[in-house]
Structures are given as C-alpha cells and as structure tokens.
Design goal:
alpha/beta; Rossmann fold; 7-stranded mixed β-sheet; 7 strands
Length: 191
C-alpha cells in the first residue's frame, strides 16, 4: 500500500459525478473531512481487477460508492435495512445491493470475494468476532478491511484478539480506526 498515493486522492473530486443525488439526500460535510476511510477504499478498489468485493454494512452507501470506482470489480453491499440510498446504488452497474445479514450469505459467495470491507453496526466487537469466526470456519482466503477498530473497548478487545497477520491502517483510514486482517494472503505495506 502506498500511503502517499492514498492521501493524495481527493474524494470530493470522485463524488462530483453523482454529487447532485447525494447532496439532496444528505449533509456531505462529514464525507469531505479528513479521517474518513473513503480515500483508502478508493485506493483498494484500484489495486484489484476483476474481483468480487463484499461491503458488509451499506448504511448510506458511501463505502460501496468508494469501492465501485474500478468498474472491473463486482461490489456486493449488504445491510439489514433497506435505506433510501439503495435506490441510487441499485442503478450502479458494478454494485449489487442485498438486504441481508452478511452472515447469512452463501459460503460460495463469500469464498468468491477477494476483499471484504467490514463496517457493521453496532461496533461492539461481538458481531465482528462472529463474522471473523465464520471466515475462519469456512477457510476463507482474502483481505478483510475493518472499520472503527478503536472506537470503543469492545472493538479494541476484538482487534487485539486477532491472531492472524493484521495491520493498523488508521493513519490512512478512518479516525476511529481502520484495520486490515489477512486470511492466507501476503501484503506489502509501505510506510
């Protein structure tokens, strides 16, 4: 990962093509501020071609939107609630929206993913453990990027309990913590 390249991404420029939709629906001030993970997600998308990326936790759709920037990748985004933003995401060629708990997804779909972005509410470390335990159980291989790893004690405890190779990417990710866990994959981290 190249920290300088990631930090140079101007996410406000990335959003300009669809800004009209998002501005009328949401206050975008928080999207533009430093300390969000959108630059990192945009960069991650550019590092892979023709892969499936799972976005566990659609919420307003911002992470799926950042991940979709490489049109060769297939993004599947999950949420347990059908929010109004999904109407927009349903019209993006390389995004599939599923109103489904990602833990209930078929093993074949999960195995097809090279990258997973985990951002499920509430960030308590319990759901994250359930998810990572499932990935172990099915012997998934890939890159798991995790949001809010430092937001509270539960998340910190979960993050500290991970025994796989892991990297704290908070400096180039979300101000409440971004982590990378590798499941039988190698990664080159450039400091």
């Amino acid at each position: 990962m190249n920290k300088e390249q990631i930090l140079k991404i101007d996410y406000s420029e990335v959003l300009k093509q669809d800004i009209g939709y998002f501005e009328k629906e949401l206050n975008l001030d928080w999207v533009y501020r430093k300390g969000e993970a959108f630059q990192l997600l945009n960069y991650i998308s550019s590092q892979f071609n023709n892969v499936t990326i799972l976005d566990a936790g659609t919420h307003y759709g911002w992470s799926a939107y950042a991940l979709k920037q490489n049109p060769t990748n297939n993004i599947i985004t999950y949420d347990i609630t059908d929010r109004f933003e999904n109407k927009y995401l349903n019209n993006v060629a390389n995004i599939e929206v599923k109103i489904l708990d990602v833990n209930q997804e078929s093993i074949d779909i999960i195995h097809s993913a090279e990258v997973i972005y985990l951002d499920i509410d509430p960030h308590d470390g319990i759901q994250e453990k359930v998810f990572t335990d499932m990935l172990h159980r099915i012997e998934w291989q890939g890159y798991l990027f995790c949001d809010d790893i430092h937001i509270n004690g539960g998340m910190g405890n979960w993050w500290n309990s991970i025994l796989l190779d892991k990297y704290d990417l908070t400096e180039i990710g979300h101000l409440h913590g971004t982590g990378l866990i590798t499941f039988n994959r190698k990664v080159s981290i450039i400091k």
